[in-house]
């Protein structure tokens, strides 16, 4: 709970973004508290990126109220941007420069002294585990190294608020987990994080609270645990079938609170997964594989939007 003298880092009320006749963001209310990791989830076209650009103070709102760090982006955009760190979806590093030079050049954009930037670069390279690549050009670095450098660069001005747009897209599992560790460390240091992601496990790991957006509106809001409790069941039975095989949903529909039919599998939402699976087998339903697991944010997403995140 925020204190009386501690304003929200971001506060939006009835926030709207239009592009001509198209309304990308349709009157959303959002509050991001100091020190938390806040997530925006949703399919492509849900309005996440448009919202992030308004928060980053690079795209003016069309209607509604928005305060970032207690200021109005339409009036005090430069002051806000000086206190933000932004990690775009696509790395935009200077590939011909070295790791160290990328940090030096970016730091100078903020008017920081050369001596300060030199010290900060050493600190950030250690944070990003890139100290041994300091004098290497960026081009041959791995995707994970480039992503860590992009995050390090966004921290050169010691931002109070860090915006991360799909921070781990395209990375292998090992690189993703290393990046998660860096983000956990930032949060522990008091940096407020706002994250968009297509990965449900990432949102569950990183986000204290999140909103699910669909069609420019907020479909649900809460902590990962609250959303799972509210919109799903304790367990899910997954039955996978061969491509083209008929999925026998009608034969098992009464065994679960809800049944989700996907192209290659059947999901049975129930409080008692093992019991439901045993009853499925007693009815002679045969699948390629079966699994009983706990509910996840992906199940919440399917319930709310009826789509997968990569549509």
TrEMBL record:
It is found in: Cell membrane. Keywords: Antibiotic resistance, ATP-binding, Cell membrane, Membrane, Nucleotide-binding, Translocase, Transport. InterPro entries: AAA+_ATPase (IPR003593), ABC_transporter-like_ATP-bd (IPR003439), ABC_transporter-like_CS (IPR017871), ABC_transporter_ATP-binding (IPR050763), P-loop_NTPase (IPR027417). One of its GO terms (cellular component) is plasma membrane. Gene3D superfamilies: P-loop containing nucleotide triphosphate hydrolases. It is a peripheral membrane protein. Residues 10-240 form the ABC transporter domain. SMART domains: AAA (SM00382). GO terms for molecular function: ATP binding; ATP hydrolysis activity. It holds the Pfam family ABC_tran. The keyword Hydrolase does not apply. GO terms for biological process: response to antibiotic. The keyword Nucleotide-binding applies. Belongs to the ABC transporter superfamily. This is Nodulation ABC transporter NodI. It comes from Amycolatopsis methanolica 239.
């Amino acid at each position: 709970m925020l204190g009386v003298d501690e304003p929200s880092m971001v506060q939006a009320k009835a926030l709207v973004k239009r592009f001509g006749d198209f309304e990308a963001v349709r009157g959303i209310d959002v509050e991001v508290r100091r020190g938390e990791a806040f997530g925006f989830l949703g399919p492509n076209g849900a309005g996440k990126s448009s919202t992030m650009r308004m928060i980053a103070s690079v795209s003016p709102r069309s209607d509604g109220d928005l305060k970032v760090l207690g200021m109005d982006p339409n009036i005090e955009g430069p002051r806000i941007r000086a206190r933000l760190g932004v990690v775009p979806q696509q790395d935009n590093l200077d590939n011909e420069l070295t790791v160290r030079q990328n940090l030096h050049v970016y730091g100078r954009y903020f008017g920081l002294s050369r001596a300060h930037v030199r010290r900060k670069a050493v600190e950030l390279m250690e944070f990003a585990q890139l100290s041994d690549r300091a004098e290497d050009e960026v081009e041959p670095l791995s995707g994970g190294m480039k992503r860590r450098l992009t995050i390090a660069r966004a921290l050169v001005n010691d931002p109070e608020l860090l915006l991360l747009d799909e921070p781990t897209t395209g990375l292998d599992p090992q690189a993703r987990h290393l990046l998660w560790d860096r983000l956990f460390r930032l949060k522990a240091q008091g940096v407020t994080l706002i994250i968009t992601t297509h990965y449900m496990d990432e949102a569950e790991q990183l986000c204290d609270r999140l909103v699910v957006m669909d069609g420019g509106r907020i479909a649900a809001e809460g902590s990962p645990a609250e959303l799972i409790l509210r919109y799903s069941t304790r367990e899910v039975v997954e039955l996978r079938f061969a491509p083209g095989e008929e999925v026998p949903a009608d034969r098992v529909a009464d065994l679960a609170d809800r049944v989700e039919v996907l192209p290659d599998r059947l999901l049975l939402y129930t409080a008692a997964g093992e019991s439901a699976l045993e009853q499925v087998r007693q009815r002679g339903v045969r699948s390629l594989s079966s699994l009983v697991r706990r509910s996840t944010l992906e199940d919440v997403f399917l319930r709310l939007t009826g789509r997968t995140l990569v549509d």
